[in-house]
Amino acid sequence: MTDVSSMGPQPDDHREVLTNRQGHAVYDNQNQRTVGARGPATLENYQFLEKISHFDRERIPERVVHARGATAYGYFEAYGKWGDEPVAPYTRARLFQRPGERTPVAVRFSTVIGGRDSAETARDPRGFAVKFYTEDGNWDLVGNNLAVFFIRDAIKFPDVIHALKPDPVTFRQEPNRIFDFMSQTPESMHMLVNLFSPRGIPADYRHMQGFGVNTYKWVNERGDTQLVKYHWMPRQGVRSMTASDAAALQANDLGHATKDLHEAIERGDFPEWELLVQMMSDDDHPELDFDPLDDTKVWPEERFPARPVGRMVLDRNVADNFAENEQISFGTGVLVDGLDFSDDKMLVGRTFSYSDTQRYRVGPNYLQLPVNQAKNAAVRTNQRDGQMVYSVDRAGENPHVNYEPSITGGLREAQYPTHDEQGPTISGRVTRRRIERTNDYVQAGQRYLMMHDWERDDLVHNLITMLSQCDRPIRERMVWHLLLAENDLGLRVGEGLGIAPDQVAGLKPLASQDLTDEDRARLANLG
Ligand code: HEM
């Protein structure tokens, strides 16, 4: 018989004891149970089997996009106003009403294309997703650091992501695949001019802006709606990296942005952003040269000022990366009373996609996890069962009634806060048409002209670097688009690629695009 008195912790070791998930103390975490020291293992070894089989299931599918990210907690503090005006005439959302009222938040910053352990120095949009745990339930504002997106219809999302993700054969991100797609997608030009400028590589997560990108609505007590866009402005300032800054950093650190955020919060240097809102009346605005529901466009600030409504401070790190960063689940459908969707065709597609992927990625009861719960609101549903039920939602007075309607003590429907109708009347025939006023080039060109000289040089350099790795017809089509966006941009990129305007002047417009009169005039002058 073995003498156990010298094994395990010494009498003066007061640390807590390791157990298995059944609460059984673990006496030996170094050796399996075997028949003799050199003999075969035994199958009834519960402790070993539980440990290994749980390990075997440690990974869940990573997010199909935005796999790498970092989460932190804090609060949003309302100003009670939209700029200098009271906010109530525009939205009845309670979290915005009372000056100084704080709503707890969780924020996840991310990169889009790389996997869970990829480099945070990539040229890639950054995710900026905020979960507000309001007293009316959760509100998720799921945005990016760039104000526009590559496409305007959700049906194209799998394609744009496939083009940007690694090649299915070589598993490398390939410029030729990216620009094959983009060159056939003229609405991507505005995003590309942003992404290939220094803004495409934010210095870290604390020094970047956030944008809701899609158009949402605000709803007031009377059911009147306004179209709105959300913007987060960092109090720390905006900082970006050039490709060579990023390469130097990446040589030493794949996770610099997560580290920067974590360390800033640990040392009490809490990052802060102001939330600003642009607003326009809820109609199609025929006077504009773009459609307010088009997420490839920004709203000119001189006409639609971005006015502050509150500020957000992040002051606490997650306690566990998996439980709180990997499992946190945001969605554009997660809105509270007084906030609404618009008919932006990206937004409606996104709103299906998020909860759909989370039911697959995390599981059907993902909303029961602490990080996802509507912890400041009462949750009482008749939803039951499914994998990994953690708790049963509170029923009405009678726990036997998990259905509605009932006269035997079940839950009842709520009263509408005001009435059930809101917003303008919409009519139309079912169709698959593009929106009018696609106007794919004008804002891309304006963006280029707004840049400092060094930013333009960087953009031109980055585009030449990428496009020089692409097939000739792809390069030509990209130069054609860039010339239509802004002559100087097209000329400079073309020069770097050895393509003069007269070599692309004969290209026909794509079947998938509508040119404006101004575009046609530019096209006529290309040669
Ligand atoms: C994440 C779909 C466009 C921002 C995701 C995820 C999906 C998705 C499936 C993974 C969610 C998860 O596993 O929890 C889509 C679709 C889009 C679209 C179908 C277009 C139709 C956009 C746009 C933005 C955006 C335009 C920016 C405004 C984000 C962010 C995340 C994300 C920030 C990460 C959320 C997190 O940190 O967990 N998207 N997306 N997406 N998406 Fe989108």
From TrEMBL:
**UniProt xrefs under CDD domains:** catalase_clade_1
What catalytic reaction does the record list? 2 H2O2 = O2 + 2 H2O
- Pfam families given in the database record: Catalase, Catalase-rel
Q: So what EC number does this one have?
A: 1.11.1.6
- Coiled-coil-forming residues are none
Query: Which InterPro entries does the UniProt entry name for this protein?
Result: Catalase, Catalase_AS, Catalase_clade1/3, Catalase_core, Catalase_haem_BS, Catalase_immune_responsive, Catalase_sf
* Catalase core domain location: 19-412
Task: Name the coenzymes or cofactors required.
Answer: heme
Top-rank taxon, per record? Bacteria
Ligase as a keyword of this entry, yes or no, is: no
Q: Which UniProt keywords apply?
A: Heme, Hydrogen peroxide, Iron, Metal-binding, Oxidoreductase, Peroxidase
Q: Does the keyword Lyase belong to this entry?
A: no
Its job: Decomposes hydrogen peroxide into water and oxygen; serves to protect cells from the toxic effects of hydrogen peroxide.
Sequence similarity: Belongs to the catalase family.
Name of the protein in its database record: Catalase
